[in-house]
Write a structure and sequence with these properties.
This protein has about 210 residues and is an all-alpha fold. The protein contains ten helices and no strands. Helices cover about 90% and strands about 0% of the residues.
């Protein structure tokens, strides 16, 4: 039985993919940021934004898993460069959260918020993209290609299900916090997101220095 399962899916790789992406994409941690960016939306709009954001993130992760390495090589872009660019984008979003500039356009451009910055780079950020590309590269070098690919696909899917559940019930959290609590969470989320962005840029700079 165990050998039959191993031929279908690499259980060890599945666990590694799920845990790694869960930590990087952080479904519980997306709740305050999601609430901040959708604070002016109705409950139905928030549910639709969550569904669209998860769909976009899933599509971006899968696209980079399949075509990412070839695309970066064709454009002569290194993984640290991608990581640094994502960090700068996140920093811009964090500054908007800290200053409150996101509150006005959020209600008018709910769909855009679901695509950018929610779908990418907040959910499908450089960390998740690079991690997935590394897993795919290791699967290419494995003797059990199909089982490894199935494990990566299942791991990515499970993490996105967790992301959807976290944002799907974020509206209840919003009702509990109220407007004042949501504003407070917005500022805290902006501070935390800015720290994440700076760390991404710092990691990219460190990688460039080591390569040099």
């Amino acid at each position: 039985m165990d050998s039959w399962i191993d031929t279908v899916v690499d259980a060890q790789l599945l666990g590694s993919v799920f845990v790694t992406l869960f930590v990087i994409m952080d479904p519980p941690g997306t709740v305050p940021i999601f609430l901040a960016l959708t604070s002016s939306m109705t409950g139905r709009q928030r549910v639709r934004a969550a569904r669209q954001a998860v769909a976009v993130a899933f599509a971006v992760i899968i696209a980079f898993a399949v075509f990412g390495r070839a695309l970066l090589d064709y454009l002569h872009i290194s993984l640290p460069a991608l990581q640094g660019a994502g960090g700068l984008l996140l920093l811009l979003v964090a500054l908007e959260l800290l200053t409150g500039k996101d509150e006005a356009p959020a209600s008018a451009e709910g769909v855009n918020v679901a695509l950018v910055p929610l779908g990418t780079p907040l959910l499908a950020g450089p960390g998740a993209i690079v991690a997935t590309m590394v897993f795919v590269q290791s699967a290419n070098q494995s003797r059990h290609h199909p089982a490894a690919y199935v494990a990566i696909a299942l791991g990515v899917l499970l993490v996105h299900v967790c992301l959807w559940l976290a944002m799907r019930f974020a509206g209840r959290i919003h009702r509990i916090l109220g407007d004042g609590g949501t504003t407070l969470v917005t500022r805290i989320a902006g501070l935390l997101l800015s720290a994440i962005a700076v760390q991404l840029v710092a990691d990219a700079v460190r990688a460039f220095v080591e390569q040099g």
